[in-house]
Amino acid sequence: MPTRSQDFTFIEAALEELETYLLSDVLYWPLHSSSRLPMLSIGGILLGMRRLHARSKSPEERTQMEDLERQLEAIHAKWRTAWQRKAKREYLARVNLWKNYLEDYSQAPDSQSDLYPQQVQWRVILQLLLQYPSISMEEIEFLRELDTIVKSSWLSGGFVWEPDVEAIFPEPEYWFLHGRLKS
């Protein structure tokens, strides 16, 4: 998982290119400032902002975080329709990534269960994207069907990511981060 510094660098770079990205046809946008940064997407920004929020402890870090939030909200407000369109496209792409992982898991639980902490990021991004009205009830229902598959092999237990972000992903809404798949 990226550090606070890496998330901050990513969000800062993403904000510089966000308007151009929103108006493009590209779903996963390579950031021009560094090839080492993740590709820009709505879900990637939302996830990075969540982690950054959890890890911003000092007054200076909180001020930096609030500034990034203001910039992000201004862009979102200005380009709301383009944002929603990208969110829907990403939702459809990420739900397929999550489905593919679960299919691989069903074929080989012993080798795939150890990959869960990395692969569950797709499910987290899907949860973050659910806040947008562009996601249809049919698409939400398909995700619920995938959740049923997960729950059939679920072992409740410890948080699967770093402890410093656990509070920002509470168990009722992010239950899939508070356990693991059977092997």
Give a nutshell description of this structure.
The chain has helices at residues 4-22, 42-55, 59-78, 80-107, 109-112, 116-129, 137-152, and strands spanning 154-156, 179-181. It is mainly alpha-helical.
Main beta-sheet strand count, sense and barrel state: 2 strands, antiparallel
Helicity range: 55-70%
Supply Rg. Answer: 17 Å
What distance separates the N and C termini? 23 Å
**Residue windows where pLDDT falls under 50 for at least 5 positions:** none
The count of β-strands is 2
Count of discrete alpha- or pi-helical segments spanning 4 or more residues: 7
Strand order of the largest sheet: 1-2
Specify the structural class. Answer: mainly alpha
| Overall geometric form | globular
Instruction: Give helix and strand order, one letter per element, not per position.
Output: HHHHHHHEE
Mean pLDDT: 95
Strand content: under 5%
Could you explain how this protein is built, in words?
- With 183 residues, this protein is mostly helical.
- It is 63% helix and 3% strand.
- It has a two-stranded antiparallel ribbon.
- Helix 2 (42-55) runs antiparallel to helix 3.
- The protein is globular and about 40 Å long.
Keywords:
183 residues; mainly alpha; 7 helices; globular
Note the topology.
Blueprint lengths: L3 H19 L19 H14 L3 H20 L1 H28 L1 H4 L3 H14 L7 H16 L1 E3 L22 E3 L2
Antiparallel strand pairs: 1-2
